[in-house]
Design the sequence.
DNA sequence: GCTGAAATTCTGGAGTG
DNA sequence: CACTCCAGAATTTCAGC
């Protein structure tokens, strides 16, 4: 990667594990003034190294206790299909959507209010892709041992009975 | 969810799509003073609704252009296996690790410098789980159409030749 | 990339319904 | 109890170097 040094990468790594750290704190960690960190960060955002910032939310608190992984095998990914996929990606209960190698070429993770909503979603997928979808399969997420680069503040789908070793640090 | 109202959920949704929004801005969006937003947010963090904050980083800029989805079928998930999984989750090239229903009961997403590193990783997985791993399969992520609840600022693994319709908004 | 000063935001406590 | 207001502290931001 041209124009990116180890300082920049360190900034990216820190920001990945603590997205709300202040520029001042970040500056202390990488031995740079807040202003310098800011200008580097602006560069990194401009270059697309930083896609955005997000809070990691337990979907149960948003009324979506059912998380599913959905695998789709598409016969071909033509421009028309891509527009469908783009639309799918824009849904606000879809966390991620990947094109991948392997038996199924699409993987999607979504949140649902209940099994009925998941069923409806699958039905609409079938309708959307029609004969182009050679196979659609859904798995339920039973437990998230890790999500999104955060440290061990893990949780269960059935409401964290886990020991709370280590509060998140923001200082 | 007891003790969580629509205001709280709105805060969670906003924070999920913009993790670095300021309390003042957030307050404007939900018609609350910064101080109130702060106390609600503290409650939400205490309850575990907010797991943490993260920047979404293009792994290529960290020297890991290869992203893989790895499926594992474990014969059983006993306490010993769980400790292995926890260790796996703690690796800093592992983005997520789920237990799930279906043919393979573990799904992992990881970043790698190159194919060799991926191969080594798979080999170490085989060694770690031994005969308990009935199957280990790896797929490559070809394209991320969506990742982590951010809007359409999508990118390709092979360095964004995509049209840049829509800059990320932070205000 | 740093400094310094102005603008903005954060934060904790007192006060209100 | 949840909220607002307010003042001091911290952070962000931008100019100039």
Sequence:
């Amino acid at each position: 990667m041209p124009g990116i040094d180890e300082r920049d990468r360190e900034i990216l790594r820190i920001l990945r594990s603590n997205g709300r750290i202040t520029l001042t704190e970040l500056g202390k960690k990488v031995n740079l003034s807040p202003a310098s960190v800011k200008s580097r960060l602006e560069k990194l955002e401009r270059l697309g190294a930083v896609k955005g910032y997000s809070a990691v939310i337990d979907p149960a608190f948003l009324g979506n206790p059912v998380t599913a992984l959905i695998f789709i095998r598409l016969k071909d990914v033509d421009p028309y299909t891509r527009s469908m996929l783009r639309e799918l990606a824009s849904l606000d209960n879809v966390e991620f959507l990947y094109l991948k190698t392997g038996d199924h070429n699409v993987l999607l993770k979504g949140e649902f209010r209940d099994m009925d909503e998941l069923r409806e979603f699958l039905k609409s997928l079938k309708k959307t892709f029609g004969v182009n979808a050679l196979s659609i399969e859904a798995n339920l997420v039973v437990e998230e041992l890790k999500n999104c680069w955060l440290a061990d503040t893990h949780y269960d789908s059935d409401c964290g009975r886990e020991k709370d070793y280590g509060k998140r640090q923001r200082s």
